[in-house]
């Protein structure tokens, strides 16, 4: 996912950034002065907001300004780098425009679980058409048009495709993929289910680079769907 961290605390940015980097998410750091809002950066899927970055008197206005400028597409997850905010502060943030919050920003286990939940929800959202792409998604029917030819996928195939296709060039480790697509199905984890599904997708959707995309294994980690020159490879 494309993630931004908004904070003025270098120590907290380093803590959170380390988690996002290890998870393979694309990360940007935004300043708490909000000057960047005049020329907003690239679209984000999630903005992780340190509410301590704002004075209490301006917190509501700044959060509202973020939401009005960026729209409702990025999810806002709020926390406190100093763990000094009350539950009422977080509930107030939710009423203004935040989508979720962490009561303890240093609890990376909870944060990672929330990231996985956000990734799962992406399956049920329409994927924006990619420029000059030979792949077109029909989410309602779980169809993928490959250079105009329709291929019907089952639930797990479609979930795997959407996870990788929605995050081109982003490496996912095997644990993350199993958690997102197979949830807590231990029987899937204990077999070569993932490798079988990847092989099937590669064949059925020509994800070998023939039409500009390919699924590639990343040794010791997992898989990535990446752009490739047309003509195989």
How would you explain this protein's 3D organization?
This protein is 36% helix and 21% strand. With 233 residues, the protein is α/β, with parallel strands linked by helices. It has helices at 10-22, 59-70, 87-96, 108-121, 155-165, 174-182, 186-189, 193-204, and strands at residues 2-6, 26-30, 46-50, 75-79, 100-101, 135-138, 143-146, 149-152, 172-173, 213-218, 222-227. The strands form three sheets. It has a five-stranded parallel sheet, sandwiched between helices. It has a three-stranded antiparallel sheet with strand order 6-7-8, with no helix packed on it. It contains eight helices and eleven strands. The chain folds into two domains: 2-121, 3-Layer(aba) Sandwich (Rossmann fold), CATH 3.40.50.2300; 127-227, Orthogonal Bundle (Arc Repressor Mutant, subunit A).
Q: Which key features would you list for this structure?
A:
single chain, about 230 residues, alpha/beta, Rossmann fold, Arc Repressor Mutant, subunit A, 2 domains, 5-stranded parallel sheet, 3-stranded antiparallel sheet
Summarize the entry for a quick read:
By secondary structure, the protein is of the alpha/beta class. The protein is built from eight helices and eleven strands.
CATH class of the largest domain: Alpha Beta
How large is the count of helical segments?
Answer: 8
Strand percentage: 15-25%
Instruction: Give start-end ranges of low-pLDDT stretches.
Output: 123-129
Write down the overall mean pLDDT: 80
Determine Rg (CA atoms, Å). Answer: 19 Å
